[in-house]
Amino acid sequence: MFKENKGEVLHGILLIVLFSFSAFYITEFEFVKQLSFSPLIVGIILGMLYANSLRNKLPETWVPGIKFCSKQILRTGVVLYGFKLTFQQVLAIGLPAITADLIIVAGTLALGILMGKLLKVDSQTALMTSTGSAICGAAAVLGAEPVVRCEAHKTAVAVSTVVIFGTLSMFLYPIMYRAGWLDGLSDQAIAVYIGSTLHEVAHVVGAGNAIDAAGGNVADAATITKMIRVMLLAPVLVIMSVCLSGKQKNKGITGKSKITIPWFAFYFLVVIGINSLLQSATFIPQETLQAGIGFINNVDTFLLTMAMTALGAETSIDKFKQAGAKPFYLAGILYVWLVFGGYAIVKLLF
């Protein structure tokens, strides 16, 4: 990429940086806060607005910088996301929560692939949509993108489904709690239900806090359960890479059947391990440690926002029309599975 004029590449990167700063500013608006939209979601919306308005009026030579953000910056952001997690969190929440996460992640991916075939959804779009629903929303879609190697608009479609149904869940679950529909579950079970079935971390936090305000005590445990799902991103990406390689071999594709090892997924686990060690280190002042980790997390959120904005900048309305409504039908089916199937699984385990 750097064979291109470096100045032109930097122009594209700076454009995405400016949009990303704007995304952070917009998330401070009160109505955006109420929707619990993260800068990542706002970023992809801004990128799509740019793609459908100003894109043709700016130099095409800026495109390599935009692609740099949607590739290299994306991988860096996924790796640093590990500083939000620790292995101690896994041990704290217990085996039932881990089991629920494993069943729901595996079930969502399997159902998504199956229903994608039945609905005749493009296989890459189906896989990206299923991954977003199964693991951690937009961050999972971003993590899967380098492995699936799909076009930017397919990534944007998958993220859009996460935004729609995840936001719906954030409001639905507190309503279900207040209506007494979750009375059959203990607070611990409700926390696991929320963490194992909602799409984004922000959605889990929003729903958990709303239920706590209504008299529950679920937000912290729900967030930890969600983080366990996030940890499953690394092994899922490795399995995905092996399966996609095998699929290429079965189709007789030569020269491209080599397994793509998602090294950034392993680095992600290494970072989780480093963070786990840091959090348990007694010789580091906690105030200093938390300030440092907080700074890294803020930088990481900005990098992921840049990646999302760049993906949005490569997505036009025409490409959404090309994808059609089927990916949203697929996401809707997965949503029903998460709400009702997730409840049944948690009820069985608790």
TrEMBL record:
Q: How does it sit in the membrane?
A: Multi-pass membrane protein
Its Gene Ontology cellular component terms are: plasma membrane
Give the highest taxon in the source lineage. Bacteria
Q: Where in the cell is it found?
A: Cell membrane
- Please name one Pfam family that this protein belongs to: Cons_hypoth698
Keywords tagged on the record: Cell membrane, Membrane, Transmembrane, Transmembrane helix
Write out the transmembrane intervals. 9-26, 32-51, 90-114, 126-144, 156-176, 227-247, 259-278, 328-346
Instruction: Give the similarity note.
Output: Belongs to the UPF0324 family.
**Protein name as annotated:** Uncharacterized protein
